[in-house]
Amino acid sequence: MEELINNLRGYAELAQASYFNFMYINNDEREMDSYKIGQNRFPKDKDNIENLEYTKTLSKKYKDYFIYDDSIALYPTLNGEFGEIQAKNFAKKYEIKFHQPNTASGFSATLFYDKEKDKFVVGFRGTEGLWSMDTLADIGLTFGKGDFQLNALKQFLLDIAPILNKVDSNNIIFIGHSLGGYLAVIAMQFCDTIDRSLNTQFNAIKFMASQVYTFNSPAIDEIDNMLMRALAALLDKNIMEQVLNPQKVYCVYDSGGINIIASAQYGSHNRLPIYTGKDSHSIIPLTQTLYF
């Protein structure tokens, strides 16, 4: 049980970090130092300019600071939510191997590397908004049209393939909160069922996830078959219509009364209720409850 709690704590923390803006973070500290941050958009906060650092992207102390990138019209902002100690501990433990900033469809995901456990964790960003059955139906309809975030998801998997193809699947985890958890399951299904005998671009994806952890993700039992049929058609039958490995999926949710979360998600026999006392869809109460 202690190991399970430790794992959940780490994955919840990573699911929360998947919302943060890592678009300028990489393993080259010299390149990071070339970017400055400050509290004013215009004019620049010349008296209080600081170097951009990994820990600052995580810290709520620097939330809403502007990143002074003169190559774009509007300066992006930092949006970290961690306290100082949590931010420092996170930065020591995890490296950012790849980050996909917001696409036009709103898709964003990050490939983290856990230096202590030698594991790669793919975090899919979700939404902090409230869910309804109408929202879930809209997801199904939009996937059926072939847009939403599917194309961005496919491209992201192709982008991280050169890194993860060399990694044992036992060391690959997919995670996500809310919509991000749903995307994590779709990504698992995609990687598990690609027909690699066909000569397509997807042959470049050779990796698979050993486990998927979803946090307050939507219940999609009424529309999942429709979604899988739509995905199979969109991918030229490169994905099977039935989830093969639901036992891989662990659905963690706030047990304080929320009815529109993971209780009917894929792998619902692996449901893990966590009482936060907040009755909240947000990832933050889950992370705080497990972390502290």
UniProtKB/TrEMBL annotation:
<protein>
    <submittedName>
        <fullName>Lipase family protein</fullName>
    </submittedName>
</protein>
<dbReference type="InterPro" id="IPR029058">
    <property type="entry name" value="AB_hydrolase_fold"/>
</dbReference>
